């Protein structure tokens, strides 16, 4: 059940579908496993790499090797959240906030 401020993966995906950049593949977790979402991605020329939910009668194949690399992106976001300025979003201006993310990402890369 959703509480105030939460948005399900389905609703969030529907809102962002029109703003997706050009890509060959979209990596997503099981929360994005929906036929309408897969079809919308295919219509945009994007190949979905989304594992099927466990309750699907017919499991849909996905690239397991590519999906396993998804953890690198997840780990980067986790490292960014270690930076207090980023995870609490001290900067109200989007430009300044983005600059803080870039500085944090650069330091993380070099360490």
Overall, the morphology is elongated
Low-pLDDT sequence parts:
none
Give the % helix. Answer: 40-55%
Strand content: 5-15%
> How many structurally independent domains?
2
Give the number of DSSP strands: 2
Give a description of the structure:
The structure is a single chain. The chain is mainly alpha-helical and 111 residues long. It folds into 2 domains: 7-67, no CATH class; 69-111, no CATH class. Helix content is 49%, strand content 5%. It is built from 6 helices and 2 strands. The protein has helices at residues 9-16, 35-43, 64-68, 70-80, 84-87, 94-110; strands at residues 25-27, 47-49. Strands 1-2 form a two-stranded parallel sheet. The longest helix has 17 residues, at 94-110.
Topology readout:
Blueprint: H1 9-16, E1 25-27, H2 35-43, E2 47-49, H3 64-68, H4 70-80, H5 84-87, H6 94-110
Parallel strand pairs: 1-2
Short description:
The protein is mostly helical and 111 residues long. Helix content is 49%, strand content 5%.
Comma- or semicolon-separated keywords:
about 110 residues, 2 strands, two-stranded parallel sheet, elongated, mainly alpha, 2 domains
């Amino acid at each position: 059940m959703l509480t105030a401020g939460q948005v399900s993966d389905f609703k969030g995906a529907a809102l962002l579908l029109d703003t997706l950049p050009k890509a060959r593949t979209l990596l997503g977790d099981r929360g994005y496993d929906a036929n309408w979402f897969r079809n919308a991605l295919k219509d945009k020329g994007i190949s979905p790499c989304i594992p099927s939910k466990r309750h699907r009668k017919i499991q849909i194949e996905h690239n397991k090797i590519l999906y396993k690399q998804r953890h690198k992106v997840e780990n980067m976001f986790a490292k960014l959240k270690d930076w207090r300025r980023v995870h609490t979003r001290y900067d109200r201006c989007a430009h300044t906030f983005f600059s803080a993310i870039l500085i944090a990402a650069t330091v993380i890369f070099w360490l």
